[in-house]
Amino acid sequence: MRKIRVALGQINPIVGDFDYNLQKILDYIKKAKDLQVDIIAFPELALTGYPPEDLILKPSFIEKNLQYIKKLTENVEDIVVIVGFIDKKEDIYNAAAIIHNKNIIATYHKQFLPNYGVFDENRYFQKGNGLTVFEIEGYKFGVSICEDIWYPENPINTYAVEGCEVIFNINASPYSEGKVKKREELLKVRSRDNLVSIAYVNLVGGQDELVFDGNSFFVNPNGEILGKGESFKEDLVVADIDLDEIFRYQLKDNRLKNLRSEYRRSDKVNYIKVDYQIKEKTVNIEQKIVLDKPDIENTYNTLVLGLRDYITKNGFKKVVIGLSGGVDSSLVATIAVDALGNENVKGVLMPSPYTSKESIEDALELAKNLNIETFIIPITNIFQTYLDEFKEIFKGLKPDTTEENLQARIRGNILMALSNKFGWIVLATGNKSEMSVGYSTLYGDMVGGFAVIKDVLKTKVYQLCEYRNSISKVIPDRVLIKPPSAELRPNQTDEAELAPYHILDEIIKMYVEQDCSVEEIIKAGFDEKTVKKIVKLIDTNEYKRRQSPIGIKITERAFGKDRRMPITNRFKEI
Fold this sequence. Notes:
Blueprint: E1 3-10, H1 18-34, E2 39-41, H2 59-73, E3 80-88, E4 92-100, E5 103-109, E6 131-136, E7 139-145, H3 155-161, E8 166-171, H4 179-194, E9 197-202, E10 204-207, E11 210-213, E12 217-219, E13 225-228, E14 235-242, H5 243-252, H6 254-262, E15 269-273, H7 295-313, E16 319-322, H8 327-340, E17 345-349, H9 357-370, E18 373-376, H10 380-389, H11 401-422, E19 425-428, H12 432-437, E20 450-451, H13 458-471, H14 477-481, H15 494-497, H16 501-513, H17 518-523, H18 528-540, H19 542-546
Helix pairs in contact: 1-2, 7-8, 7-13, 8-9, 8-13, 10-11, 16-18
EC number: 6.3.5.1
Binding site for ATP: 322-329, 429
Active site: 44, 110, 146
């Protein structure tokens, strides 16, 4: 029985901070060596951070990346390290370096470059066309990168036929609802089909609108999870893999025998023997398996981590939020406290002539429960000054959304003034339902440096509030049961102006996230008049969404990079 000790360095790098990323990798290598690890793998583009986007088009960025992979290489001894970086040959490649004893002994280039949703790798990289097999003491190991593993005809098939026992798959796979389970099921299928053990390491941390969830794990040829790391936290996941057991699986299964009888090795397989002896183990390890969490918990943790990393990685410390006493601002304030600590969150109440006594009470109760510093800045006098100035030019005209939007923009100005004066970043509180139909005011409630719940539908907002209150009750009960209202005129409610949120959100899902036609949505049982009204609002408010702050992606189809619609556009569904 020959076992090899393997580690997955689930780290949170910072895009472009080569010193930080290098030190983080070296720290994890030291931890791994202390545990007598033989091979440690780090995520995709761990050295540069992911995604570096158009930094990749800067020759200086490519060169610095190469300088730092050299620095890393010079510090690797008595362990095999697999790490993501940008390789430069005749072109540039999304690559994995295999490093041993101060040398890059082999390099693998990613073969399948994603070019959908938030991914744009064809813009930057050349596609790889070779495989890398490295051998230690007669046992073989393969390397692949992220997307490579999602295709039916993938490098793992060839690695298995080549006799590999373990395949390392290094990733930068961002979170979306349901994706954690989907990944695990896919890797279980790949391991069972190919009779190999797969070591899957994923990035963790927030990068602009993306959040990488970690959840690195090992899976054996039976499709069983051997060890699994934390979600939304850095972790070093370690497992002892029985190489002889894997070989026995392969000997007994005719599938690989039959494939090998037809297989003709290509010169594209780079085969490397590594002068490395598997360590005798005197240090015991805990082979942990972190249990899967419910989607609602994963989504909440995504929002917390995404906000924390956006604020801290961009050099901010404190945030400010307009507290309305409504469910959206209550959720955003709660997430902010969980992400940054109550001392770094400021709340501002800005009551207008239409703000209810209950809303003020609810906002103050929330602030008390969260223990955040709160300011009350009424807007009534400022609003009246605007009305007085417009009195002549608006003469004879009835009040309408103009006066409503004035109130929202006054509040936006107040928040931005506090931001400018104290260096607090404003958190916008709009949700995906509002962003979809334009139920928001440009330069008003849409102002902010970051929109935490921009990809969260209103019905999900309530679910997240209920989840958070199940941990410790901070959001007042009345916030969760009163009809949502912008309170910009008497007796105003969201659902009276739009549609009941459970109906609105389903229409948004079908039209925005699933690209269903108006006809298909109506056939699904929704009222024709309501569907046409909502679709028209979605189509005509693209210009607003383009001017909104970025926000955390939690669905498979978020506004922005996932869904790119022209503003000037005469194709209409209705």
